[in-house]
C-alpha cells in the first residue's frame, strides 16, 4: 500500500469524528457523574473543558486530579453508560459517502482511535465502512495517554506511508489529534462536531472546519 501520487493518506479519528456520538458521550458523562456525586455538565462546558489524558479533564471539573481508585471507578462507570448508548449513534453527516468516494478514487485512509479495539472493530463493521480502511487500530491497553505514540505505531504498520509522511493528514475532533500528527511530522485538520469547542480547537494552530467534507478538501490541499 503506497500513497505517492494519490493525494493524502487520511488517518481518521472515530469518536466525535466519523461517529457522531457527542450526545451519547454527554448522556453517559452525566449518568456517571450522578453515580459518583458530581454535578451534571452541559455540552458547551464539556467542550470547553475536555482534554486528553482524560484524568486532566476530571481535574478541570473537580479542581484536583482523581486518585487512581477514583479514576478507575469514573472510567468504568462512564464506559458502562456509553457503550449502552453507542449502538444507537449514527455516522457523521456525509461520512460514509466520503469514505467510499475516496476509496473509489484510489486514495488511502486508515482509522486510529482511543476506543477499545474489541469494541471499535465490530462497530465500524456494523456501519458498513470497514472495507474503506487499509488499517483499523483501537486501544489495546489500559493507558489513557494520548495518541502520539500510537500514531507512530499505526503509521509504521502501513507499508509506504511512513516513507511519505508529508502526505499523511490526521482528521479528528480533539487537540490531541493535532498533537499526534505533529509528533510524527504529519498535518492535521480538526472538526468541530465532537468533543471540543471551536475556540479550544483553534489553540492547536491547525485548520478547523465544520464538516468532514471540508476537512477532506483541506487535507487534499495540503498535499496538492
UniProtKB/TrEMBL annotation:
InterPro entries: HAD-like_hydrolase_sf (IPR050155), HAD-like_sf (IPR036412), HAD_sf (IPR023214), PGP-like_dom2 (IPR023198)
Molecular function GO terms recorded: hydrolase activity
Membrane-spanning parts: none
Organism domain of life: Bacteria
Keyword terms: Hydrolase
PANTHER family registered for this protein in UniProt: PHOSPHOGLYCOLATE PHOSPHATASE
Protein name as it appears in the record: HAD family hydrolase
Organism of derivation: Streptomyces huasconensis
Lineage: Bacteria, Bacillati, Actinomycetota, Actinomycetes, Kitasatosporales
Amino acid at each position: 500500500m503506497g500513497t505517492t501520487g494519490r493525494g493524502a493518506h487520511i488517518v481518521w479519528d472515530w469518536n466525535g469524528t466519523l461517529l457522531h456520538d457527542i450526545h451519547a458521550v454527554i448522556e453517559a458523562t452525566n449518568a456517571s457523574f450522578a453515580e459518583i456525586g458530581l454535578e451534571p455538565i452541559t455540552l458547551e462546558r464539556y467542550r470547553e473543558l475536555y482534554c486528553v489524558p482524560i484524568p486532566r479533564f476530571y481535574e478541570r471539573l473537580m479542581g484536583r486530579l482523581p486518585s487512581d481508585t477514583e479514576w478507575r471507578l469514573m472510567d468504568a462507570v462512564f464506559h458502562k453508560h456509553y457503550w449502552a448508548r453507542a449502538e444507537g449513534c449514527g455516522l457523521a453527516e456525509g461520512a460514509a459517502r466520503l469514505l467510499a468516494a475516496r476509496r473509489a478514487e484510489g486514495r488511502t485512509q486508515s482509522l486510529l482511535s482511543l476506543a477499545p479495539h474489541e469494541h471499535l472493530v465490530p462497530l465500524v463493521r456494523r456501519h458498513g465502512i470497514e472495507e474503506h480502511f487499509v488499517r483499523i487500530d483501537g486501544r489495546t491497553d489500559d493507558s489513557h495517554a494520548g495518541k502520539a505514540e500510537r500514531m507512530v505505531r499505526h503509521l509504521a504498520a502501513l507499508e509506504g506511508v511512513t516513507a511519505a509522511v508529508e502526505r499523511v493528514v490526521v482528521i479528528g475532533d480533539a487537540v490531541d489529534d493535532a498533537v499526534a500528527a505533529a509528533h510524527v511530522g504529519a498535518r492535521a485538520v480538526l472538526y468541530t462536531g465532537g468533543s471540543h469547542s471551536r475556540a479550544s480547537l483553534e489553540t492547536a494552530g491547525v485548520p478547523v472546519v465544520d464538516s468532514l467534507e471540508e476537512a477532506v478538501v483541506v487535507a487534499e490541499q495540503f498535499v496538492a
